[in-house]
Amino acid sequence: MIAFEGPTVPEPLIALARRARTVTVLSGAGMSAESGVPTFRDAQAGLWEEFDPMMLATPEAWRADPPFVWAWYAWRVALVRAVHPNAGHRALADWSSRLEVLIATQNVDDLHERAGSSQVHHLHGSIGAFRCGECGHPFIDPVTVPDEPVERLNPPACGRCFGLVRPGVVWFGESLPPDAWAAGVVACENADLVLVVGTSGMVYPAAGLPALAGSAGAFVAEINPLPTEISAMAHLCWRASAAAALPALLAAITAVE
Ligand code: OAD
C-alpha cells in the first residue's frame, strides 16, 4: 500500500484513472459528510446524543419501540431532504458521462442520484423507500416529517394489512437487497479501478467488496481522511475528503487528455 496526504492528486491514480475503462465506486457515509449528513460513527446530535445508531438500526429496537425508532428515521429523512449533493457526488456524475462509473453505496440517501449518477446500487436500502414492516407492501403515500426532531412519532399504517410502516433500510442482522448486492459484486469483479470513498469498512458484507475487487484484478484506491479497516488491503490510500478529492481527480484526468 502506498499512502498520499493532502490536496495534490496522486500521480499513479491519475495514470490508472486515465487508463480505466470501467470504474466502480464503493461509497459510505463519508461521501455525504460534506453535504451535512453525519456519519454513523460520528457523535449523534440533540435528542439522540446518548443513543448509539447501531442500537437504533435493528429489528429488535423497532419491535421494542416503533415510535422511538420512527422518530429517529423521520429526523434523518428530514435531514436528507434538506441537504444537497456535494462536489464529490457531482464529480462522479460528470465522470459517468465519459466512461462507465458504477456506484455501490452503503448510504441510504439519494445524493448520488440527485447529482446525476444513474447506476447506483443501494446495498443498505433507501431511506426514502418505505414499506410495511409486516407484509412488505411498498408504502407510497407522502411521508411527512416534523420540522424539529421529536422523541416519539407514530409510524403510518399499511393500507393493506394495517401493519406499521418502516423505512426501507437494512437493519443490523437483516439481509442485503439481493439485486443490489449481486450488482455490487459484479461491479467489483469487472472494474479496472475501484475507488473506496468514505467508509470505515467495519460493516460486512459490504466491507468485503474491496478485497473481492482486489482479488478479481482491480486496482483498489481508498479516499478517506483517516486510515480504515480497508487501508491495509488497498493498493493506494489518499488521505483527502470526498468533496475535495473527486473533483480534483476528474480535473486532473481531463487536464492530461
Ligand atoms: P462510518 O460512519 O462507519 O464511517 C465513515 C467514514 O467516512 C470514516 O472512515 C471517516 O473517516 C470517513 N469520512 C468522514 N468524513 C469524510 C469525508 N469528508 N470524505 C471522505 N471520507 C470521510 O460509515 P460507513 O462506513 O458508511 O449500516 O458505515 C457503514 C454502515 O454502518 C452504514 O451503512 C450503516 C452503519 O451502521 C447500516 O445501518 C446497516
Can you tell me about this structure?
- 42% of the residues are buried.
- With 257 residues, the protein is an alpha/beta fold.
- It has helices spanning 11-19, 29-33, 53-56, 59-64, 66-82, 87-95, 111-115, 178-190, 209-215, 242-256, and strands spanning 2-5, 22-27, 100-105, 120-122, 125-132, 138-139, 165-169, 193-197, 219-223, 236-239.
- The longest helix has 17 residues, at 66-82.
- Helix 9 (209-215) links the parallel strand 8 and strand 9 (219-223).
- The chain has a 7-stranded parallel beta sheet with strand order 1-10-9-8-2-3-4, with helices on both faces.
- The structure holds 2'-O-acetyl adenosine-5-diphosphoribose.
- 2'-O-acetyl adenosine-5-diphosphoribose binds next to helix 2.
Features:
257 residues; alpha/beta; seven-stranded parallel sheet; three-stranded antiparallel sheet; elongated; binds 2'-O-acetyl adenosine-5-diphosphoribose
Overall form: elongated
Largest sheet report: 7 strands, parallel
Distance between the termini: 27 Å
Bound molecules: 2'-O-acetyl adenosine-5-diphosphoribose
Class inferred from helices and paired strands: alpha/beta
Please tally the β strands and state the result: 10
What is the multimeric organization of the chains shown? single chain
Please write the string of helix (H) and strand (E) elements.
Answer: EHEHHHHHEHEEEEHEHEEH
Q: Which bin fits the share of residues in helices?
A: 25-40%
Please list the strands of the largest sheet in the order they lie side by side: 1-10-9-8-2-3-4
- Kindly estimate the percentage of residues that lie in beta strands according to DSSP: 15-25%
Mean residue pLDDT: 94
> What is the helix tally?
10
Give me the Rg, rounded. 19 Å
- Give the uncertain stretches in residue-range form: none
